[in-house]
Amino acid sequence: MPGTVALVQARMGSTRLPGKVLEEIGTRPMIQWVLERVSRARRLDRVLVVTTCLPADDQLCSWLSERGWPFYRGSELDLLDRYYQAALAADASSVVRVTSDCPLIDADIVDRVIADRDSAGADYASNFVCKRYPIGLSAEICTFEALRCAWKESTELHERIHATPYLYLHTDRFLICDAAGIDEDLSYLRWTVDTPDDLAMMRAMQRMAGDQLYEMSWRDILGLVRRNPQLERMNEHVRQKTLREL
């Protein structure tokens, strides 16, 4: 039956940190952190990895197959088409977009974004259009019909390679819901992994918290960072990519 499906985009070809999705944080590769933390969301029906047909991603697909994680392989350059085709194959009524470089993604945040969209009856909801959360806790949700519309009508390159800009930049076409959820601006914190310094920070955090980090809520992690400000300083200089660079 149709349901709410999380599509986790992942590939081995990251420009700033190739192969990062299989880099270990503690005893687990980063993709495992993302998949298992996302899977705790109560409002999700399925979790599916979307990757490319490139030979470089065979290693990732082998890892997923060995552990029973479903995946879809599609276009390398047209991420919007990859998302649409995966959602179509999964019979999704709503699609949650999560990226594989966010090992601290929080299931409660994912549930909040889904609930806010449902309550508003919106076509699209996210917690990052009005940035407040630390970078690395982003989640988006759209209806399948909105995704289909974007897939049919998007013509700009940045709309195709990033999947959702057509939705949140066309407020005249779609009902948009800001699911920010918090008042404090924490967007200066960088909890994503896109560079060696990001990875070093995440590993330092894991050594400090041990296996507990795998289970901690984002608010508990925030407490850990505030008690240990040297963590924040490890990657505060890293520049976040712009929309057209993603």
- By CATH reckoning, the class would read Alpha Beta
- Mass-distribution shape: globular
Spatially, the strands of the biggest sheet line up as 5-4-1-6-8-7-9
Rg over alpha carbons: 17 Å
Order of helices and strands: EEEHEHEHEHEEHHHEHHH
Distance between the termini: 33 Å
Question: What this model shows, in words?
Answer:
Helix content is 37%, strand content 16%. It has 10 helices and 9 strands. The model has no long low-confidence stretch (mean pLDDT 94). Helix 3 (79-89) runs antiparallel to helix 5. It has one domain (3-192): Alpha-Beta Complex (Spore Coat Polysaccharide Biosynthesis Protein SpsA, Chain A), CATH 3.90.550.10. By secondary structure, the chain is α/β, with parallel strands linked by helices. The longest helix has 14 residues, at 107-120. The two termini are 33 Å apart. It has helices at 30-39, 58-66, 79-89, 107-120, 144-153, 157-162, 165-168, 196-209, 218-227, 230-233; strands spanning 3-9, 24-25, 28-29, 46-52, 71-74, 92-99, 124-126, 140-143, 176-178. It has a 7-stranded mixed beta sheet with strand order 5-4-1-6-8-7-9, with helices on both faces.
